[in-house]
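[Discussion] Sanity-checking designs against the backbone

I'm trying to build intuition for which residues belong where. Below is a structure token string of 223 positions. I'd appreciate it if someone posts a full sequence so I can compare it with mine line by line.
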């Protein structure tokens, strides 16, 4: 939700996401398989809205990062629900372009499709939509502008680019553990979990690190 990395190492990839949330927010339901719009998905579920910040099926995955709000919305629609529904669509780009985001807070959605070998970012900034085609062979780091300042984002991206050891599960997890949310001015937010999805020509596994309860679980992706 708040710090996301995509690492490509030869024929294998690692997609890792930190979830930074207010301390008074309910703990997520650990990942499990669901049927949504007649598609099998696996994801950790937000117990309040029922959506998720990261989800996957056998050939694609997506995650959501919250962006800085430009205005308050009284009855906002869930970004996590949109992500889940988008991953069940045959044409997610068309679904995104046709969706009415009038009552949705700004976000960035990252979608990886292994069948089409595409990596794309979908941005709703509160006023307009934008889609960027990314290089599936490159490494990326994204951070939520809703809680991280631009200076800190640039600093962490610099460290990320300079770090040549981020090519395996252990070192990638270490990087994400070292970059848990930490703000001395606001101790009401913490990193609750880290989710890592890995695979080759197919998505193979989700590892879920429940930081608050010091628990690790592994899940095979549904087919």
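Best answer:
Here's mine. Compare freely.
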């Amino acid at each position: 939700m708040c710090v996301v990395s995509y690492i490509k190492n030869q024929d294998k990839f690692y997609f890792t996401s930190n979830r930074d949330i207010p301390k008074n927010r309910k703990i997520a339901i650990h990942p499990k398989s669901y049927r949504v719009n007649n598609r099998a998905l696996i994801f950790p579920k937000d117990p309040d809205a029922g959506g998720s910040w990261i989800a996957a099926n056998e050939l694609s995955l997506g995650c959501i990062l919250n962006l800085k709000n430009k205005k308050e919305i009284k009855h906002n629609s869930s970004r996590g629900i949109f992500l889940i529904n988008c991953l069940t669509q045959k044409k997610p780009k068309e679904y995104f372009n046709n969706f009415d985001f009038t009552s949705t807070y700004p976000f960035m959605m990252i979608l990886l499709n292994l069948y089409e070998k595409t990596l794309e970012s979908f941005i709703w900034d509160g006023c307009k939509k934008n889609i960027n085609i990314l290089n599936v062979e490159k490494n990326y780091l994204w951070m939520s502008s809703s809680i991280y300042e631009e200076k800190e984002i640039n600093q962490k991206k610099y460290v990320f680019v300079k770090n040549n050891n981020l090519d395996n599960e252990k070192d990638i997890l270490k990087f994400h553990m070292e970059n848990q949310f930490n703000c001395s001015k606001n101790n009401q937010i913490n990193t609750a979990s880290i989710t890592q999805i890995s695979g080759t020509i197919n998505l193979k596994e989700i590892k879920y690190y429940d930081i608050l309860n010091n628990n690790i679980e592994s899940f095979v992706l549904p087919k």
